[in-house]
Design goal:
This protein has no helices and 11 strands. The chain has about 120 residues and is an all-beta fold. The protein is globular.
């Protein structure tokens, strides 16, 4: 089993920055990539970003390219999502997830999920 614990969400104003973190523990040795997804009550779960664990390749959803940055700290077994230039439409619950295989943009490929952290951007 793998446990993923997100933290760092909160309430910010448009244009502000926020960093969310995801600490992984457990059977992480089969990990291929870690990803971030977000969801609101009105929308389906949306791919935000992903990073391959072995070589650090990054992938981003179109709506966040140029504003969000995903990174990892292998020593801490933690993945981060730095969110800059936040917009009200970025308001969502952000979920961290782990997958043993690609493609990393597809939520169905992810086997383990965190509980989510709320990020709210006011206008």
């Amino acid at each position: 089993q793998v446990q993923l614990v997100e933290s760092g969400g909160g309430l910010v104003q448009a244009g502000d920055s926020l960093r969310v973190s995801c600490a992984a523990s457990g059977r992480t040795f089969s990990r291929y990539a870690m990803g971030w997804f977000r969801q609101t009550p009105r929308k389906e779960r949306e791919f935000v970003a992903a990073i391959t664990w072995s070589d650090g390749r990054t992938f981003y959803g179109d709506s966040v390219k140029g504003r969000f940055t995903i990174s990892r700290d292998s020593a801490k077994n933690t993945v981060y999502l730095q969110m800059n230039g936040l917009k009200p439409e970025d308001t969502a619950v952000y979920y961290c997830a782990q997958t043993p295989v690609g493609p990393v943009q597809q939520s169905a490929m992810y086997k383990y999920w965190g509980q989510g952290t709320q990020a709210t951007v006011s206008s």
